[in-house]
Design a protein that fits this description.
By secondary structure, this protein is an all-beta fold. Helix content is 0%, strand content 40%. It contains no helices and four strands. It has a four-stranded antiparallel barrel.
């Protein structure tokens, strides 16, 4: 599912994000959403979230359950 729309992401969602340090390489980090940091309903680079382990990045894909 698309990580650019806030409506697709809930607390506890399983996601792949790109961390700030990995933006050039595009390396994805897997985890579960603890907090949604972007307040806008849509963001072209992905909604910014904090994972349960504390890492912050933009959602590239939401893994459907």
């Amino acid at each position: 599912m698309n990580g650019q729309l806030r409506e697709n992401i809930q607390i506890g969602s399983e996601v792949n994000i790109v961390l700030k340090k990995d933006q050039r390489s595009g390396t994805l980090t897997h985890g579960f959403v603890k907090d949604i940091l972007t307040s806008a309903p849509k963001h072209t680079h992905g909604i910014k979230v904090r994972l349960e382990d504390g890492q912050i990045g933009r959602v590239k894909e939401v893994i459907e359950q």
